[in-house]
Structures are given as C-alpha cells and as structure tokens.
Amino acid sequence: MLKLISTKLPLLEPFLKLNKSQGTIAQNILWLMIERVLKLIVGVLVGVWMARYLGPEQFGQLNYVIAFTALVIPISNLGLDSIVVRDIVNKPAAKNDILGTAFLLRLASGLVAQIVIIILYFCFSYNDGIYKVIMPIITAGIVFKAFEVIDFWFQSQVLSKNVVNVRLLSFFIISAMKIILIWQKATLLEFSVVVALEILLDAVALVGIYLYTRNSISKWRFSLTYAKKLLIQCWPMAISSVSVMLYMKIDQVMIGKILGDSDLGIYSAATRISEIWYFIPGAIVSSLTPSIVKAKQMNESRYLKKNQSLLDLCTLLAYVLALPMTFLSNFIILLLYGSEYKEAGLILAIHIWSAVFVFLGAAKNPWIISEGHLKINSTATAIACLVNIGLNFILLPTMGVVGAAVATLISYGIANFFIFLLSVKTKVLARMMIKALLLKNFILIFRKK
Description:
Elements lengths: L1 H7 L4 H4 L7 H47 L2 H5 L3 H10 L4 H29 L5 H11 L9 H8 L3 H24 L4 H25 L11 H35 L2 H15 L3 H20 L1 H38 L6 H8 L2 H18 L2 H26 L1 H16 L10 H11 L2 H9 L1
Helix pairs in contact: 3-7, 3-9, 3-11, 3-12, 3-13, 5-8, 5-13, 6-7, 6-8, 6-11, 7-10, 9-10, 11-12, 11-17, 11-18, 12-15, 13-14, 13-16, 14-15, 14-16, 14-19, 15-18, 16-18, 17-18
C-alpha cells in the first residue's frame, strides 16, 4: 500500500519511509481527507441551500455575526495547537500534565473571549435588533472549544481516525438540523441557535471518543511550571492567530459596516467556495508534523528534505485548485447560488488565488515551530493584518466587494511568503518556498519519468 502511495505521490516519499511498516502517516492523511471531503460536499450543499433560502441580505447578516465572533476565537485558542502536539511527541510520559494544563488555559481564555465579545458588543451597538439577539447566541459556545485539546492528543499519536468518526457524526447531525429548518421555513434566529450548537456537539464528541479509547480526563493535572512555559512559548503564536483571523474575517466585518448586508452576502458566497479547500493543507500538515519534529532530532538533512517535500506538495495542490477555479468561477456561482449572487463570480476568481499562500503558509509551520521562529511568524501576520485593514479602507469605497478580494490576496501573500524573504533567520525557509512556488522539484520528478 505504501509503495503504491509513494509511487503515485513521490513528494510524500520522505515521510512514508519513516513508518513503512505501519503506514500511520498515510492512513492519517487519508482519514482526515475523508472527513474533510465529506464535510466539503455536504457543507457546500447545505450552505448553498441556506444561502438561497435566506437570500443575500439575511445570509449576509448571519455571516456578519459569524465573522465578528471569529475575530475573538483566537483569544480562546491561545495558539497552543502545534506547541502542545510537539510537547506530547517529545515527552509522551507527561501527557496528562500537558493536556490538563492546556485544557485549563484554554478554558480560562474562553471565558476571557466571552468578556471581549460583550465589550465589543457594547462598543459597536447596532440599530438593527437582529444582531443584538443572534450575536450572544452564536458566541455562547466558545468556552467549549477548550475540549479541542483532546484532538491534540490524537494528532500527536497520528490517530485522527478516532476523531474523524465522531466529528463526522456531529457534523451530520447539525447539517440535518439545518435542512429541517429550511423545510420548516425557520427564522434567522433559529439558524443561529443551530450554528451555536455545533461547537457544543464537537466537544461532546471529543470527550466521548477520548473516554472510549480508554483515556481518562480525571488523570489530567495542572502544572503551574508547564503553564508558565507554555504561555511564554505560545504568545507569539497567539498573536499570529489573532492576526490571521483578523485578516481572514475583518474584510467581512468591514463590508457589512461600509457596504451593507447584501454585499456581504454576495462576498460570503464567493469566499465560502474559495475557503472550503483550506482543509487540505491542514489535514496533511497535522499528520506530517510529528514526523518532521522527530526528524529534526535525528537527521538535519532528512529534516530539511521533509520540509521541502511538504512545501512542494501543498503548493502543487494549491495550483491544481486555483487554475481551473479561475476560469469556472462564474459558472460555479450561477450553478450553486443562482443569478441573485452572480456578482460573486469575479470575487471567487480573485480570492481563490489566496489558496496558494494559505497552503504555503500551512506547510511552513512545522519548520517555523521546529526552528523556534514564532516571533517572526507573528510579526508577519500582524503586518499582513494591518495591510489588509488599510487596503479595505482604500479599496472598498472605490472597487466594492472586489476590492476586499484583492486586499485579502495581497495580505495573504505578505503573511505567508514575502515577509520571510526579508529576514536572515528565515533564508533557508525562503529558498524552500521559492522552489515550491516555481515547482522545481515537481518538474525534476516529471523529467525523470
């Protein structure tokens, strides 16, 4: 099986060699892909149905609150994901201390995020009463995101199959509820309740699979020493996560305030098609990160080869996605959403190229974490966030929602590529990223064949 995968996907060969007997990495990627593909298909169908049912204005209102809420979610996440996975890989005996400490930190940060939402709510009061009703509902589940630390454990063991099964179950339940609401001609308020329930169901699913696999939450312990160490290490990633979410979602908030709900509904329709593909690098990177971390300790040459292969693979996949989507954007929008959303075609054709930098950015993270250059990464995203806000202020009044797509593309490029060309500390990464963007290694493999 592994020989077949290695033959069909030569860019994965450096990873497959390490675990040839078990094939855990390839299987992990396969399960994550199955989850994401099923979610993609069902999510698009249900999402399009919702968009058609609600119309651009109400669809824009719902996405405005979701985008506004997303701005504070990084506060609850604390940027712990990759660091916790790395620590469990390096110190498996300290599993319960690591998970217990990470859980309590995420729980506390979730409460802080709720407070921030309340403050922002009073700072940005709305004339339309619908926002005052649905915003507290959608944000209520943020505190339950603390249970995502369970997923970190399964990632560290390259056992995502367990998480995939239960998360798919909760996803299908939520999707079924949305379909029922459409059939029943439900209100926007009822849809917001279902959106909030999704986080709660995910938490229940994660706890259930963790206990089912004979793990015990009661054994988790809080370590003050490790908490201090974790907070010192994670704050650059936390800042980076806040910046990433800002430049991913601030455009929707600004469109809602500057252009209105209908324009936001049209923009959201395009970006949903563009962003649904972002799961691909996430599934690959989360599966390969433990292998890269181990390679760093064993062999520097093999470690760099693994990083290059990951960058090559993710960039190639982004090109394969972006090129056809550029020419088919109008057809896809009209087919899925109808003529009411026809202006989203051009937005999709531009926004889809952000995937190149998103995929590249995800692929660079194992190198950034292994080398300890988290501050550079957070600086890059902070700069990109400011650029995105500035460009939206300039482009939205003159170019409309198309300007937001242009601003997003430029800011993604800055955050995930251009900044790393300027730092001496990341010159090794910069060379690898340039090779990946030029498809140098893929061209060499093709010529050999």
